[in-house]
Design a protein that fits this description.
The complex is a heterodimer.
Chain A (H helix, E strand, L loop, with lengths): L1 H18 L14 H32 L11 H14 L7 H21 L8 H25 L6 H7 L8 H10 L1 H9 L1 H7 L3 H6 L4 H23 L5 H13 L3 H25 L8 H22 L1
Chain B lengths: L1 H13 L13 E3 L2 H9 L6 E3 L24 H6 L4 E5 L2 H12 L4 E4 L7 H12 L2 H16 L9 E9 L2 E4 L4 H8 L2 E3 L8 E3 L2 H7 L3 E5 L18 H4 L3 E4 L1 H4 L6 H22 L8
Parallel strand pairs in B: 1-2, 1-3, 3-4, 5-7, 5-9, 9-10
Antiparallel strand pairs in B: 5-6, 6-8
Helix pairs in contact in B: 5-6
Classes of the chains: A mainly alpha, B alpha/beta.
Amino acid sequence: MKWTLLAVLAVVALVLSVVLGPAAVPLGELLRSDIVWNLRAPRALLAFLVGGSLGVAGAALQALVRNPLADPFLLGLSGGAGLGAVLAIALHLSGPWALPIAAFIGALAALGLVYRLGLIGGASLDPRILLLGGVAIGAFAAAITTAIVSLADAAELRNAFLWLWGGLSGASWDSVLLVALYAPIPLVVLMAASRPLDLLALGEESATYLGADVERVKRRVYLAASLLTAAAVAVSGVIGFVGLVVPHIARLTWGHRHRSLLPAAFLGGGALLAFADTLARTVVAPRELPVGVVTALIGVPVFALLLRRWTIA
Amino acid sequence: MLRRLLFAVLLVVGCRPSDRPTVRPSRIVSLLPSFTELLFAIGAGDRVVGRTQWCDYPPAALSIPSVGDGLPPNIEAVAARKPDLVVLYNAGPNVTAAKQLERIGIRTVLLDLNRLEDLGPAARTLGRLTGLEQQAESLARAMDSLTSTNLHQPPPTSTVAFIVWDNPPIIIGHGSYLDQLATQAGARNVFGDVTAPSAQVSLETIVARDPQWIAVLSDSAVPPAFAKRREWRAVRAVREGHFLLLPGSLFGRPGPRSGQAIQQLRMRLQRDGVGAQHAAPLHQTSR
């Protein structure tokens, strides 16, 4: 029942985001319209893939660092991606894909640094240090970014921030294809870690006694979730709240078993982002809202409602 | 004796409170490229002793020391030029800067300059302050005429969208200087219904409104990078390469050269428009 509802929700969100838009496309011409084929359809699919990826990455990271506040961007990735994008503009790297690639590399660099910091105590990856290191590296990257933006001449640099918070405007079949080929790998890695992630919730020691290879799981989960997030940043910038709120909503409804939690977070995140993006494009048309605003406006009340229902029950 | 008396009088005059209009400033710092252009145009260029790094016109302005980017103004760098008048653009951080300058005894003036109709008043104010009322008045009249010819203009023959940034797409709306430039040059801004000076829109809105031209402020001769992105190729003007690349120094700011900017834009629309109309008949799908 829960699954049917979620699947219906996901399909409805996808259909709505193809049917609705600021430009009036008659229903009869829907399948022949250039706007629908080349703009709306790839954007809807990209929203779904990115939202789903963020949902799964958030759920996995929350389990890994055992902190309900964990969010895919908390571990320094948004800071790294921002620095990459600003550097690309400052160094006048041109080309249609310069910014996404630079942001991806920046996110990977932040990921590497945070990972290295996480291993500072020895061979074991310490989730607490991972969390602190992520926040520190993120702040450091943001500071360098701000310094470059305020010192460099080009007024264009300020636009790097626009790009970083830009959402799904850059969606095309190219970016959909890219994510559709890339995301399954970390997604499968995370799904395969479902059982050990369940055990990790009991604490590292207990998980080890119960037969989980804790060190390997931690590394895999951290790397897979971060690689997933880095790709999301590269194609759609930093989109907040999906990776924070969706895993909690999924956990409140599906429980703590990652085997069902992760797919639910994927479908839920995808549906939420596709739906939020439809609203962002249409409610103030011809203008557009930043999609992160809408994800927060929808996600937080739903979350509060569920929280209330489940704490009272 | 007479010389001494004269000197004493001059001294008294020089010591008058700084807000008296009779004291003509001889050391002016201009903190907006448009003000620098206006000051030169009314003949006060030789009194400008400080400018922003963006002030690149007239060429003589380049030999004046820069006080930085002016965003916000560096108070100490401005004060170091020992100005007796600082001209600032009337906006939040500049109001604070003006107060701080006044506190150390430097006279300031905050001027609005967002649209064509602000040019006349700005020129007159600068003329009054510098004592060059006559030159300023004739410039101001020329500036005023830019907007008054609006009434008996033929209907626009071409449509344009100004793209400020590509991801997310940010366009120029009705409340802006560039929108006015387009109107005066005989083009219709397809986002003229957006009241804000600039706004984020969906790419599909740009496709649906189907402008003949994509205008971009750019000093480069090649179309912007987004022209190669697949999603932008859904816009017909992008596909057909109908870009208007407008150099920022001339088109990006209201100033004494606004008339020239309008002329150039009109010429480019007409010259290139013949071929463009042939390739893309004028039909307006936008609402």
